[in-house]
Automatic annotation (TrEMBL):
It comes from Sphingomonas caseinilyticus. This is Glutathione S-transferase. Residues 87-208 form the GST C-terminal domain. Belongs to the GST superfamily. Gene3D superfamilies: 1.20.1050.10, Glutaredoxin. Residues 1-82 form the GST N-terminal domain. InterPro entries: Glutathione-S-Trfase_C-like (IPR010987), Glutathione-S-Trfase_C_sf (IPR036282), Glutathione_S-Trfase (IPR040079), Glutathione_S-Trfase_N (IPR004045), GST_C (IPR004046), Thioredoxin-like_sf (IPR036249). SUPFAM superfamilies: GST C-terminal domain-like, Thioredoxin-like. It comes from the Bacteria.
């Protein structure tokens, strides 16, 4: 049975498609569109998992949710390819950024999204939230000052995890040419053949 990705447009699940392309694992895509008024996932996803969130994968009867857990599952399925490097410090950086993506950076990007949607009501909070995001972006810019990839000299699944928050940061949180290391990193991931193959499989993606 072919692995199935339940893929929501313009969402974290784009990273799962990309990883599958990098690993060369065969898969099918079941694509879902957001509600045009609420921008939430459609109720059909709750038929797959009670939370009704994407990404979800199905693999021979096993259902896996949460992007980080899916990344771990697929790396293990591929016998460790694109997983933590052998070198201890690089391995620790891999694990840090695998979890930092969703645990530290994405919450602030979601707050910024809410503030922007509030319009005038959100303006008083904007400077404080932007200041916190700037702190994160400065940290990440410094991290890439001496290496090309987040874990070390080699591309890993940690880079795939970091893609969605940094793409959205460029879209709505002030990431621009003033942080050249991050922009060059985005250019590198966007030039990868597997990244572009995942876009072809997943459909339109607003943040590429």
């Amino acid at each position: 049975m072919t692995l199935i990705v339940h893929h929501l447009e313009n969402s974290r699940s784009q990273r799962v498609l990309w990883l599958l392309e990098e690993l060369g694992i065969s898969y099918d895509v079941k694509r879902y569109e957001r509600d045009r008024k609420t921008m939430l996932a459609p109720p059909e996803l709750k038929l797959i998992h009670p939370l009704g969130k994407s990404p979800i994968i199905e693999d021979n009867g096993t259902i896996v949710v949460e992007t980080g857990a899916i990344i771990d599952y697929l790396v293990e399925k591929a016998e460790g390819r694109l997983g933590p490097p052998q070198e201890p410090q690089a391995s620790q950086r891999y694990r840090t950024f695998l979890h930092y993506s969703e645990g530290s950076l994405m919450p602030w990007l979601l707050v910024m999204l809410v503030i922007r949607r509030l319009g005038l009501l959100g303006r008083p909070a904007h400077p404080k939230v932007q200041a916190m995001l700037n702190q994160h972006l400065d940290y990440l810019e410094a991290e890439l000052s001496g290496r090309e990839w987040f874990a070390g000299d080699q591309f890993t699944a940690a880079d795939i995890m970091m893609s969605f928050p940094l793409e959205t940061a460029r879209h709505r949180a002030g990431l621009d040419g003033s942080r050249p290391n991050l922009i060059r990193w985005l250019d590198r991931i966007h030039s990868r053949p597997a990244y572009n193959a995942s876009l072809a499989r997943g459909g339109p993606y607003a943040y590429a």
